[in-house]
Write a structure and sequence with these properties.
Blueprint (H helix, E strand, L loop, with lengths): L1 H19 L7 H6 L6 H8 L4 E7 L2 E9 L3 E8 L2 E9 L3
Amino acid sequence: MMTRTISRLLTVTALTLALAGCGSKLNEENFARIQDDMTEQQVIDLLGTPTETSSMGALGMSGTAAVWRDKNAAISVQFVNGKVRLKQFERAKP
């Protein structure tokens, strides 16, 4: 009985620690991984689905602005013809 209780306690502790390590993808490390000429799909693979997007096109050019936002940070990326051209990292204000 005591061994079973200890085993359950260790399992719960391990799961809690594993979930704590699954922090936000919106951090400075992932921001630094975003490079010019990456595709929109590559950035989505890195950060997940954006929380906001807007697009426009004219004269054979297309532009998309995408924002990934959570309670701690925001990453904004501007794409021209599907490739990264500008990026910005912003910490949430307390």
